[in-house]
Amino acid sequence: MITADKKIAVLIPSYKVKEHILGVISAIGPEVDTIYVIDDCCPVESGKFVEANCSDPRVRVLRNPENQGVGGAMMTGYRAAIADGMDVMVKIDGDGQMDPSLITHFTDPILSGEADYTKGNRFFDLEEIRAMPKMRLFGNAVLSFMTKFSSGYWELFDPTNGYTAIHRDAARHLPFDKISKRYFFETDILFRLNILRAVVIDIPMDAKYGDEVSNLKISKIVGEFLLKHIRNFGKRIFYSYYLRNMSVASLELPMGVIMLAGGGIFGLSHWIDSINSGIPTPAGTVMLSALPIIVGIQFILAFLGHDIASTPRRAFHLNKKGANAATLAKSENN
């Protein structure tokens, strides 16, 4: 446990979790200095309930005047924790699904300089994930694959996991007004962190499900998430490979896409002509179509190999040039 001279805060977004939140707070250990409960315009007034029934002096209730979703609640919490001089901010849901005894597992890699941001991963233990509902398991796998492309963190999994921790220096350079405020929050923040070149690592944790009902319906948000992933992917590629820096990979991707599309269109047009005329397509024409497709795929695979290898490895908050990097990142995030 690494906590000497460092202030740790826990942020708990509070919306319809009145039955569980006191238990969550009581389980938070002494390594935590401040506990922020963010009442996101909760219809059951969970903030008032905590104030009336919790005697823990570390607890501070924040309120959003209107419901902003988990992302909006976290932005309120981050701002308050940064203003109060907290060094690491841990997000725990108020529904009892996340074990507060794991807090130091999330904060230690940050305090030791290994990472800027840590997040839970429920897929490390294959035995434990059997407890996860099959639809949620499939949805998380699909969302994880899309997140790898859009965020650039190819080694991460379980992107919708809300158990996270972040270093103050990384958090204060995030564009809070730009980050998605609802269910895309956890995924969108990964994209923003990659623009900062922040180091993100997964923390193994068990899947835990009680009597709480999740408001996140994977089947309803996959389409919305797909569009946002495509947007973030395009922005990340432009920022990382054309605006901030250029390399061989900057040529491989457009060349690969052009050759793949050109070969596909050329081959498809001749295939349609062959069907209409009844005349077989000459072997030479088939080769003229297949060759650019094969080469295009090779270029795209080469680009992906470069992108995977370029995952950030040095913690942003240890970088002496962080101020300059943050200035550029902020302009890119806009």
Helical proportion, percent range: 40-55%
From the alpha carbons, calculate the radius of gyration and give it in angstroms. Answer: 23 Å
Name of the CATH homologous superfamily of the largest domain: Spore Coat Polysaccharide Biosynthesis Protein SpsA, Chain A
Global outline = elongated
Low-confidence stretches: 320-328
Which CATH-level-2 architecture of the largest domain? Alpha-Beta Complex
Mean pLDDT: 87
Number of domains: 2
The count of helical stretches stands at 11
State the secondary-structure class: alpha/beta
Main sheet makeup = 7 strands, mixed
Question: Can you write the helix and strand succession as a string?
Answer: EHEHEHEHEHEHHEHHHH
CATH fold group of the largest domain: Spore Coat Polysaccharide Biosynthesis Protein SpsA, Chain A
Kindly state the number of beta strands.
7
Amino-to-carboxy terminus distance: 37 Å
Portion in strands? 5-15%
Query: What is the spatial order of strands in the main beta sheet?
Result: 3-2-1-4-6-5-7
The CATH C-level class name of the largest domain: Alpha Beta
